[in-house]
Specification:
With 424 residues, this protein is of the alpha/beta class. It is 42% helix and 19% strand. It is globular.
C-alpha cells in the first residue's frame, strides 16, 4: 500500500501526463466538459449539500469562528451561483492559442507571441468549497492540469465536488488525471507539494495569513499569493454623503467574512461631524462594532445606540473578517494615502469623492491590486470583473495582480517564422 507521500507523487505524475494532452484540447471539448459540470452541480446538489452539512456540523462542534463558518457553508443559492459561474467561464473566449504582439524583423523573420497553458497548477486552500469549482473550471478552460489540496474542515464537501468535476470532465474528453484531489489531511504533504518543482509549475495558496506564510517560507515552486485583504474606504471632503454612506455600508456589511470587505473607514475632518453619524447609524442596524480613533469616538460617543470601542494601534492594518470596522478621521487626502500605504495589504482601496482631481490622485498614487473611485471594494472578484470566476486575488505584482482569471493562468512562447534566415 502506498504512503500518502507516494500517492501524491503518483497523482502529480498523472497530472503531468494529462497536462500535455489537455494543452492541445479544442475549445469545443473543454466547453462541453464545463457545461456538463454546471449541469451535474445542480442535478446532484443534494449529495453536495449533505456532505457540506456534515462538514459544517463538525466545524461548529470544533468551535470554528463565524467568518470561517460562513465561508464553509453551501446553500441552494450558493450552489446555483457556483453553477452559473461555470457557465460564465464556458462562455468566455479561450485564451489558449491566441497570437499577439506580431511584428516582422528587418531580416524578414515574422515574430509573435502565442498564449499557452502554464502546465500543472497546484492550489492549497482553506474552508471555501466553492474554490474547488472555481479553480477546476478555470484550469480546464485554460488548458492546465490541477492538483487540489483543500482544508480538512471542508474535506467531505470538496470530495463530493471533485467527484462531480472528474466524472463530468472525463466523460466529455478531458484526459484522465487532469484533475487531482489530495484526500489526505496530513499537513506534511503541503510541505512536500511545495517542493515538487520538477513537476509542478505554479502554486496558488488561498487562505489566511498563516497559510500564505507557510507557502512563502517553504515553496521552491513559483507561487502567486492571494494575500489578506485589509481594504480601506476614504471619504473625501468633496464626497456626496448619501453615496458615501451606501458605499461604506455595502463594503462592510454585504459579506464581511471575505477578503474584499472593507476593514477601515477614513473620513476627512471637514465632513466628519456630518458623515460619521450617518454611516454609524446605518451600521448599527446591522450590528457593526466600530473601533474609533479619538476624533471619531468624540463625534459618535453621544449616540448611545452605537457599539463603540476606542481604537488601538492593533486595529490599523487588521483584517477583521467580521462586523467590525476601524474608523479614523484624517486631515487630508495626503494623510489618507499615507495611512493606506502604511497599513494596507495591497488588495483593494476606495475613495468617495466628487472632486475629480482628488479621485484621480487617489487612483494614481495608491498602490493596490484594485483601486476604486465611488464604488464598493466588494467588486474585486473574478465573476464581478467579467472573468467568469477566479482562482484567487493576487496581492503581489508578478506575474499577475488582482483577480486571476483565464489569461492570468497562461503564459506565452515566442513563435518565429523564417524563410531560410541565418544569423551573420
Amino acid at each position: 500500500m502506498r504512503s500518502a507521500k507516494e500517492e501524491l507523487e503518483k497523482q502529480a505524475q498523472e497530472a503531468k501526463v494529462a497536462s500535455r494532452k489537455l494543452s492541445q484540447l479544442s475549445t469545443i471539448a473543454k466547453n462541453k466538459a464545463l457545461h456538463s459540470i454546471s449541469d451535474k452541480l445542480l442535478d446532484r446538489k443534494e449529495e453536495v449539500l449533505a456532505a457540506n452539512k456534515r462538514d459544517c456540523e463538525e466545524a461548529r462542534a470544533a468551535g470554528m469562528n463565524a467568518s470561517m463558518l460562513d465561508r464553509l457553508i453551501l446553500t441552494d443559492e450558493r450552489l446555483a451561483s457556483i453553477a452559473s459561474d461555470v457557465r460564465s467561464v464556458e462562455a468566455l473566449p479561450d485564451p489558449v492559442g491566441e497570437s499577439f504582439d506580431s511584428h516582422t524583423l528587418p531580416n524578414g523573420i515574422q515574430l509573435s507571441k502565442k498564449r499557452v497553458p502554464i502546465g500543472i497548477i497546484a492550489s492549497i486552500y482553506e474552508s471555501r468549497p466553492n474554490v474547488t469549482i472555481d479553480i477546476s473550471t478555470l484550469c480546464l478552460k485554460s488548458g492546465n492540469a490541477i492538483i487540489l489540496r483543500g482544508g480538512k474542515e471542508a474535506l467531505r464537501s470538496n470530495a463530493a465536488l471533485v467527484k462531480i468535476v472528474q466524472e463530468a470532465s472525463y466523460s466529455n474528453g478531458i484526459p484522465e488525471g487532469a484533475i487531482q484531489f489530495v484526500k489526505s489531511p496530513d499537513r506534511s504533504l503541503i510541505i512536500h507539494l511545495l517542493k515538487m518543482r520538477e513537476i509542478i509549475d505554479l502554486i496558488i495558496p488561498r487562505g489566511g495569513a498563516g497559510l500564505v506564510k507557510i507557502v512563502r517560507d517553504n515553496a521552491t515552486v513559483p507561487i502567486i499569493a492571494s494575500g489578506i485583504g485589509v481594504c480601506h474606504t476614504y471619504v473625501d471632503a468633496s464626497a456626496n454623503l448619501d453615496k458615501a454612506t451606501a458605499i461604506a455600508y455595502n463594503a462592510k456589511v454585504q459579506r464581511p467574512s471575505v477578503c474584499n470587505a472593507m476593514e477601515c473607514l477614513l473620513v476627512h475632518k471637514d465632513i466628519a461631524e456630518d458623515y460619521l453619524p450617518m454611516i454609524a447609524l446605518r451600521w448599527s442596524e446591522a450590528g457593526v462594532e466600530m473601533h474609533c480613533d479619538q476624533r471619531s469616538f468624540k463625534i459618535l460617543n453621544p449616540i448611545t445606540s452605537l457599539k463603540l470601542i476606542p481604537a488601538t494601534e492593533q486595529d490599523w492594518g487588521k483584517e477583521f473578517l467580521a462586523l467590525i470596522v476601524a474608523v479614523r478621521v484624517v486631515d487630508s487626502l495626503d494623510d489618507a494615502i499615507q495611512h493606506i500605504e502604511r497599513y494596507g495589504s495591497g488588495h483593494s482601496e476606495a475613495i468617495v469623492a466628487d472632486d475629480y482631481s482628488s479621485a484621480m490622485r487617489f487612483l494614481n498614487e495608491v498602490d493596490a491590486a484594485a483601486v476604486y473611485a465611488n464604488a464598493s471594494t466588494r467588486f474585486t472578484d473574478g465573476s464581478q470583473f467579467g472573468l467568469g470566476a477566479e482562482i484567487g486575488i493576487s496581492t503581489q505584482k508578478l506575474h499577475a495582480r488582482g483577480p486571476l482569471g483565464l489569461k492570468e493562468l497562461t503564459t506565452y512562447k515566442w513563435v518565429a517564422l523564417g524563410n531560410g534566415q541565418v544569423r551573420p
